[in-house]
Task: structure prediction
Amino acid sequence: MSCSGYTKVWALAPDELIGLDGGRGTTLRVTRGALWLTFEHDTRDVVLTVGDTFTIDRGGLTLIQAHGKTTVCVLARHVEELRHFGDRETLVTRLRRWFGELVDAGLDRRWAPYV
Result:
């Protein structure tokens, strides 16, 4: 799917998070991957997959998170884009850090048995 006629194209990394402030009227079309959207002062969440199109119908902050490598066509007149990259630790990195902390704690660490 091409993005002709759209003002921007986002190539998002897995778990990349974007905040749109004042995104009302912005249209998003997913051409690869999936997106999760949640809105300020709104209880609903929206999940978009390949081929889905959604127009943001609320003002305020909209959070958008990519699930896997995702490409999104964006049609917007003016949006203040606050972009946060998916620098989340992988499971392996978290486990290494956790085990490292255990080793560093040494014998001073007190263990409570499970009953």
